[in-house]
Amino acid sequence: MRERDLFGSGHTGINFSKYEDIPVEATGVDCPLNVETFRDLGFTEIIRNNIALCGYDKPTPVQKYAMPIIKARRDLMACAQTGSGKTAAFLLPILNQILEGGPSPDYYCYGRPCYPMALVLAPTRELASQIYDEAIKFSYRSIVKPVVVYGGANPMQQMEEIKHGCHILVATPGRLVDMMERGKIAFNNVKCLVLDEADRMLDMGFEPQIRRIVQSEDMPRVGQRQTLMFSATFPKKVQELARNFLDNYIFLAVGRVGSTSENITQKIFLVDESEKRSFLLDLLSGSGISQQNGIRPDSLTLIFVETKKGADSLENYLHRVGYPVTSIHGDRSQNEREEALAAFRSGQCPIIVATAVAARGLDIPNVKHVINFDLPSDIEEYVHRIGRTGRVGNPGLASSLFNEKNKNVAPDLLELLTESKQEVPEWLVAMSRDVAHDYRMNHRGGSRFGGAASGRRYQSGGFGGRDYRQFDRPPRNGGPVNPPVGGGATRGPPTGGYMQSSYNQSYSSGPSQMAYNRQYQPAYTSPTTDWFNQ
Ligand SMILES: Nc1ncnc2c1ncn2[C@@H]1O[C@H](COP(=O)(O)OP(=O)(O)OP(=O)(O)O)[C@@H](O)[C@H]1O
Ligand SMILES: [Mg+2]
């Protein structure tokens, strides 16, 4: 492959410099200091050259903070907005570590299991494949060999690939467990384990597989390996669970945890279920896509629906009315999924209808418009979905069709819109108030909503506000919160907004909190929703 094809033209958005103003908070014992430039990191020449070939002039905020922490071999839970460069934040220091330690050239695995030095887990096949592509770029002209394994692809071919050796393995959990059980991969040599989209990897759908991998006999224990977790959202309950996999870790929050980029303009429309299709056509023609001039490679539209059936049906409808459209969901064969994504990326089909399978991590340039034809039932999913646009400082538009069915997400949505300085429709404020009122009536004695319609996500532990370790004890008499665990580096507005006492009190446990969680936690086990796609 030619260098130009491999690296393309590095893209940096027009608002890239705005990133400098994002508040960053790192908490934990003896937190390593951040850097300002790639040069400060002292990477090996190969890595430095590859950063230059990618066209990265300076590190993004999450990179400035996370890379020194990873270099210092500390465990890390890092939360930064969608499209802010988390992949490079973990791949570059890991590859550098492998190169510095000297990867064995004699790493063929014929007749024995393969022993990767680093393992990256991701929730979907397409995301695993994308991370692998990034690893190939960053390890260009080096001896380091990245390999990817994921479901749906030919396992024999993947095993053959592994036989030739592997330093950094990117995998979806299901296929990895399968290979591990067949004795093709062993973890004894793993120095670094990464969970990308960590909150998703530790939710009910994936957790058993993750435990199977992380607690397998040959995986080095917590403290003997380095463990890194990355996501744009980290609900408190996931932070608590994640603690079992981490040793004396640093919690890094870039911007508000779980918040969206201000580069994304968010619009919420109240549309009756029966009117949704005609409203969608208006939206499409409003954004300049019409049946006649469908092909606009510089402007792609991603439409999310809740179910696989819904995806098929909406794709058929748009096709019938003349739009160049494709779709991706978990019932499609891997070939079909890859073809659909390729047609979308290239602009051959500038509209794609997708389920949750495309919500996380995918980095597709030119996605100008994300449409939530169906809104998701939890706000984290919303944050990730709309994060497919407005990446690396580029502007983006996210439109969501809201109706009575979505009212449970109204308070969280209201808070998110307010926080990211978006226009808030009056009806959403009223609806949030109603939901809060109904909740109070059904759960007397537990004032979950604290008298205001907003604040719900803090009270549910929804997004997670920041390092939950700081909130173990509520402040006395509304006094200051606990200091950061063992100190740490803080930049930007020190604590504004995070530190309200309602936030601290919100993490109380007890029967009504449990009832609340039962009612509002996302239904990852839903038979109709397309969660499982590895
Ligand atoms: N320092 C940098 N300078 C310019 N572009 C960068 C830099 N670092 C990463 N990028 C580019 O930013 C884009 C988004 O990066 P990435 O996919 O890692 O974001 P992310 O934070 O993981 O988002 P998500 O939460 O959606 O997974 C990629 O196209 C990547 O090449
Ligand atoms: Mg990512």
Could you walk me through the main structural features you see in this protein, from its secondary elements to its overall organization?
The structure is a single chain. Helix 6 links the parallel strand 4 and strand 5. With 534 residues, the protein is of the alpha/beta class. It has 19 helices and 15 strands. Adenosine-5'-triphosphate binds next to helix 4.
Feature tags:
alpha/beta; Rossmann fold; 2 domains; nine-stranded mixed sheet; 19 helices; 35% helix; globular; binds adenosine-5'-triphosphate; binds magnesium ion
Topology:
Elements: H1 3-7, E1 24-27, H2 45-54, H3 61-71, E2 76-80, H4 86-101, E3 118-121, H5 125-138, E4 146-149, H6 155-163, E5 168-171, H7 173-181, E6 192-196, H8 198-201, H9 207-214, E7 226-231, H10 236-242, E8 250-254, E9 264-270, H11 276-286, E10 300-304, H12 308-320, E11 325-328, H13 334-346, E12 351-354, E13 367-372, H14 379-386, E14 396-402, H15 410-419, H16 426-442, H17 456-460, E15 490-491, H18 501-506, H19 511-520
Parallel strand pairs: 2-7, 2-8, 3-5, 3-6, 4-5, 6-7, 9-14, 10-12, 10-13, 11-12, 13-14
Antiparallel strand pairs: 1-8, 1-15
CATH architecture of the largest domain: 3-Layer(aba) Sandwich
- Radius of gyration (CA) equals 23 Å
Average pLDDT score = 83
CATH superfamily of the largest domain: P-loop containing nucleotide triphosphate hydrolases
How many domains make up the coordinates? 2
In short:
The chain is of the alpha/beta class. It has helices spanning 3-7, 45-54, 61-71, 86-101, 125-138, 155-163, 173-181, 198-201, 207-214, 236-242, 276-286, 308-320, 334-346, 379-386, 410-419, 426-442, 456-460, 501-506, 511-520, and strands at 24-27, 76-80, 118-121, 146-149, 168-171, 192-196, 226-231, 250-254, 264-270, 300-304, 325-328, 351-354, 367-372, 396-402, 490-491. The protein binds adenosine-5'-triphosphate (ATP) and magnesium ion.
